[in-house]
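for the record, two folds in this file. i put them one after another cuz i was lazy. first one right below, seq on top, structure tokens after. the second one comes after a little note so u can tell where it starts
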Amino acid sequence: MRIWRTLSLQARQMLAASLALVAFLGLTGLALDRAFAATAQYGLRERLANLANAYIQEGEVDRIGGFISPEIPPDMRLLSPGSGLYANIRGEGVTWDSASTLGRSMPPVELLEMNERRFEGPLTIVDSDGMENSVFAYSFGIIWESASGDIPLTLSVFEDAQQIEDQVRIYRRALWSNLLLAAFVLMMVQLLVLRWSLLPLRNVERELGRVRQGESQRLSEIHPRELESITRSINSLIESERMHLDRSRNTLSDLAHSLKTPLAVLRSRLDADASHEQLREEVAAQVQRMNEIVSYQLTRAARTGHALYSAPIEIEPRAEEIVAGLEKVYAGRGVLCEFEIDPAARFHGELGDLQELLGNLLENAFKWADKRVLLIVSVEAAPPDRRAGVNFTVDDDGPGIPTEKVERLLQRGVRGDERVHGHGIGLAIVQDIVTAYHGELRVTRSAELGGARFSVRIPPAF
């Protein structure tokens, strides 16, 4: 069973196609063989019928009821004993056998009614040496008008069955030889077609090998239509893993670089022979700083990248949880949030990414809003082979953000107002998440509320 499961695609297709080809050619051969045998028998029947008709037209019955055959028979083999062609006539008081029947015991003939015809065989005849042979018989019932009255006769013509058997044997030999040759040629053509049709898969395999060896960064874009979705998904996976690796390296590098300063401060304090109390305060401050740095870098590392294939997540319940918490935090300011969420909207990604995305956008809006915040979520239609995209829009009625400050505000560590509590990384986190999902973040002015509008577009994905 394991062998069958591990067969290659080419072997599977070749095996299936070969079985179908053998079955088709076998059934075709059987059908042609049976058709030829039936045709050969039909030809024999017509030939014997013509001989019988010729005897009826040229022969006659004498006054005493004897049959007088024509001087020159329709077929000269009727004059040669054992020639394989025989004839006889039976009737009331009439018995006649052709010269070819000499020394042979012909099968009994049943008398037929007028115009009754019968073709049968193979029948057995016995020669003078006791050897048995097979013949086919054509019998024809007639009423012969003579001077003594109407005489019912049955004319029978026999021909050796060996002739048909030889024809069928020769035909079968030629038929099956040609069918075997055709099967071999078709299998070779089939093998070439299979290799040609599976060539794109082998190309993908070779390209993946080059990617594994570091000789290429991604799969090429030139593939058959049926493989485009697969190669695009593989490229997306490769890019996602590469981005994840690069970001992990960057995170470790940033963490090491960030920890250099507090460690250097501690070293300098130790070298400066500071007092125990001063050293204690400095250590506490630098440990707190390092803790913040490590927490931030770990959070950032956890956020980088996303699962390429994730179950769709309902957006409205998550948004309600986040807004419920924010309304409690900012209860003293009386900020309220309104929803316009498409019930069909789904986020195809990680739950943590959705929570970070909505949490930072909504918290920023609550922080700057006067009284109102508006969350709009809509679905972006996608082709049948892709997952639908989703658009988030968060508006507030605060002071808004000047256009010239938007780019700087999205940088890590930059805050819109130093007097407002925060670390200045919330919008940078949003930007990282949007980038990871190949999306787009835009900051404009809200036409409805007058404050800032943050628009996030997560495009359709495979």
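(here's the note) second protein begins now
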Amino acid sequence: MGFASAGLKATVSVALLGMLIGCAAPGARDDSRRQTVEHSLTPRVEIAGQPAMQWNVYERMRRYRVPTMAVAVIEGGRVVWSATYGIDGSARLPAANERFQAASLSKGVTGGLAAILAARRVIDLDAPVDRCLAPLSLPRGKQDAEHPVTLRNLLQHTSGATVNGFDGYAPGEPVPTPEQVVRGETPAKSPAVVIATAPGSAYAYSGGGYTVAQIAMSHCAGASFADLMQREVLMPAGMRRSSFAQPLPASIPHAVGHAADGEPVPGGANTYPELAAAGLWTTPDDLARWLIGVRDAEEGRPSFMPTDAARTMLAPGMNKYGLGVFVSGDGEHRRFMHSGGNLGFKSSYVMFLASGNGVVVLTDGDNGSYLGGEFIKAVAAAYGWPDYAPRVATRATLDEKTMARYMGHYRFEDADSRGNRDLSLFRGGARWFLDLPDIGRTELVPTSALAFVAPETGYTVTVDDDGGLRVGSRVARKTQD
């Protein structure tokens, strides 16, 4: 009897030990994968036949002059770890509570709000938006009775509205109302929003359109936009460290934005009255809660938003854009995502709907989009995602003599249509480089007789028939040296 009891005790002890090991294993595994991510940042393009380059997170923060990066990694619909990294080599686990400007990531939260209000019949996504704008009225443009401006086409960037994005207002500058922004009235610095193409006929990214939607939702719901967000989204989603207050009160800890050269933004951050387009202050853990909540709702699980609202939000229109989010892929590849950039802040997220895997990256530097892209690829590799592997290019022989005629200084229109950018193509010994206005020198690898790729940024550089350079999708024209 005593022998049998001892054997039973031993069996129970082994079973308990196994249970404890099983419980501890996920944490150990996540810690191991976190360290793998931190030491496995790679360029956007790998060169066939060459060893893959890898850096640690701090090397890339110094390369891009980004002082702080805060991240959250999601697996199976839960946050498995979050961290705040400092350019000085520091790390805080979990991520700190300081808020970052999420910039255009705000659009997805706005789209979610609109879907929730529509599910409750507070707003009608497909009715002419004019009825919710009074006393504001949209200037006449390409809209008509058969092709009205609606909340749905405003939020899907198919309303024909102009004004791509906004520069914000420095501390001490007068800040316009959203109505003044739409009208282009002083003290607004952006032009008036107009309906330049027939609603529903084309996709054109428009922060101006989101500002129209901001006014409409506020008027129809009878509350300020920030209060609506707090009541309908932020608090129900558990985003207790997020706010659409612009400017954010000084008593709330928040990151300071930094320009491409690493210098702080004067006053720490600009103010954006265009809340729907660019006004969210948040943390990576808070934003991860929102991503998880949207996925839970779409799957029919308990969430802060109704299932029909999530499905409305995630239904892609033109250019695979839903209500405030890009929606791409099928099956295990299906995901929603967005990136954003305010002065001194760059951010991004992606959430896979089938697996519940995702990541949030918030940075306080204008070069943070480069850093964030590399970090997301590192997460994808460590966690076995089906997407986000680096592209592979093959090195080729360059026509050096012809290409030498293209060396020099160039200028191209910036992608967000808010200014020109200068760059240079030059050679250093046997190597070729592109000198960019934000990150400076980046090496080029020839991929044909008259073409390059920049592994670090992913940019392709080809010769244009008119004597310019095509950098990605943009044509740069040569300027006088």
